[in-house]
Design a protein that fits this description.
It contains 14 helices and 12 strands. It has 342 residues and is an alpha+beta fold. The protein has one domain: Beta-lactamase (3-Layer(aba) Sandwich). A hairpin with a 5-residue loop joins strand 2 and strand 3.
């Protein structure tokens, strides 16, 4: 099975470019309820699975031991914009675990937040690891490392795949996805990113959406993470970012998470289902268009919703600000979507 034609880029009335990819909607035992492309396609989930990586932090009660709040847990699941709200939570977390930003091994990058970016430029300052969109995930890793080992150097290599922290994360990833012995590669933040199938990733989101078959501690831990994300959607990304917009607009029915290279996951909380998508060429524009299209087809948003109209039918303008085309999901996506009954 090959990738399916999912998103088209029009210039005038002509399809100028095509984005192919895969989508799976699954229940919590891995039954595929709908798909486009190949459910068995192997991908790196990238940041779309951060909530799975954050689960061990809560399962062993570490958030209680360090007096972490919902804000900290939300940041652990985030690909944040590096704005003031995100930096304040990250700095507070560092104080709680008595470490310094130099202990973070995610590396620095310029913040996505326009206000913080302008501030750095005006003050001629360089970004710190706290600005990294993955700093919350790394703070979670460091917290686990601090708690499970009395060795003073336990934090130095916490992103090594053979470190106890990453072994715990891998085991949790296998448990939730059902995908065993996954290959891995380094993510943008240098932590291991474990591969799985699109189907397994969708199933994992369904497990979070409906964890009824799990043991009570895991059910309660998942509930804490979901509540943290739903209560603080601005920490997951940023006020002008799509993940935050979707979560806020859904009124508790959705948790979505972007991943690099054209990946998105969604927990359909009210349906107890999960969804995962991957754009084969890694296109962000296609992934954003597709996730909104699918959520419209599933009844979460209306076609004419002003908050998402420019994602559903993304206008393209030239340098003279003249509209030259549009990005939208293919007719095949809409045709199959008419028969969705989930």
């Amino acid at each position: 099975m090959v990738p399916e034609r999912l998103v088209e880029v029009y210039r005038g009335d002509l399809v100028e470019s095509i984005h192919f990819g895969h989508v799976v909607i699954s229940n919590n035992i891995g039954k595929v309820l709908a798909y486009w492309g190949n459910p068995a396609a192997l991908i790196y989930p990238r940041s779309s699975c951060k909530i799975i990586q954050a689960l061990p932090l809560v399962e062993v009660g570490l958030e209680r031991g360090f007096s972490l709040t919902e804000e900290h847990l939300a940041l652990a699941c985030a690909s944040h914009s590096g704005g003031e709200i995100h930096l304040n939570v990250a700095k507070d977390w560092l104080q709680k675990i008595k470490l310094d930003e130099k202990d973070l091994l995610c590396g620095p990058h310029l913040p996505y937040d326009k206000i913080e970016l302008k501030k750095l430029k005006i003050n001629n300052e360089k970004p710190s690891p706290l600005h990294n969109n993955c700093s919350g995930k790394h703070l979670g890793f460091l917290t686990i490392a601090q708690a499970i080992s009395k060795k003073s150097d336990s934090k130095k290599n916490y992103i090594d795949v053979d470190h106890t922290v990453q072994k715990i994360v891998k085991k949790t990833f296998e448990d939730i996805t059902g995908f065993l012995n996954p290959d891995y590669a380094l993510d943008g933040c240098s932590a291991p990113n474990f591969a799985c199938s699109i189907q397994s990733l969708a199933k994992a989101m369904a497990v979070f959406a409906n964890p009824e078959n799990l043991h009570i501690n895991r059910i309660m831990s998942i509930a804490k993470l979901k509540n943290a994300v739903l209560s603080h959607p601005e920490l997951i990304a940023g006020s002008d970012r799509l993940c935050t917009k979707i979560i806020k607009k859904s009124n508790g029915r959705l948790i979505v998470k972007v991943g690099a290279e054209g990946v998105y996951t969604a927990m359909l909380l009210d349906k107890g289902l999960g969804m995962a998508l991957k754009i084969s060429d890694g296109s962000k524009r296609a992934a954003e268009c597709l996730i909104i299209t699918l959520l419209v087809m599933l009844g979460y948003f209306k076609k004419d919703d002003q908050d998402f109209l420019n994602y559903l039918n993304t206008p393209i303008y030239n340098w003279s600000e003249k509209k030259t085309g549009v990005i939208r999901a293919s007719d095949m996506v809409w045709a199959k979507g008419k028969f969705l009954d989930i």
